[in-house]
Design goal:
Elements lengths: L1 E6 L2 E3 L5 E9 L6 E7 L6 E7 L5 E3 L7 E6 L4 E6 L8 E9 L4 E4 L3 E5 L2
Parallel strand pairs: 2-11
Antiparallel strand pairs: 1-3, 3-8, 4-5, 4-9, 5-6, 7-8, 9-10, 9-11
Length: 118
């Protein structure tokens, strides 16, 4: 089992910044990738960014490229999402995700609300 705890959400004005954190615990060695997803009201959950735990390869959704950056601190078992130049359309609940490839299993955090509004 893997437990994920997110923090760092909140209310920010357009153009502002926030950093989300996701602390992982439990069977960390079984995790192959971690990522951030988001879900806005009335919309499907979508991937924001992912990072491979060994090697550090990252991928970001087109909608956030150049504004958001995913990173990890393996010593702290923590993944971050630095969000800059935030827009109202970034408003959503952001979920931390951990993936085990074999056998396939996804773990989810409880979610943290990000609201971008003036």
């Amino acid at each position: 089992q893997v437990q994920l705890v997110e923090s760092g959400g909140g209310l920010v004005q357009p153009g502002g910044s926030l950093r989300l954190s996701c602390a992982a615990s439990g069977s960390i060695a079984t995790i192959n990738a971690m990522g951030w997803f988001r879900q806005a009201p009335g919309k499907q959950r979508e991937v924001v960014a992912t990072i491979i735990t060994r090697g550090g390869f990252t991928n970001h959704a087109d909608s956030v490229k150049g504004r958001f950056t995913i990173s990890r601190d393996n010593a702290k078992n923590t993944v971050y999402l630095q969000m800059n130049s935030l827009k109202p359309e970034d408003t959503a609940v952001y979920y931390c995700n951990a993936q085990r490839y074999v056998p396939r299993r996804d773990y989810w955090g409880q979610g943290t609300q990000v609201t971008v509004s003036s």
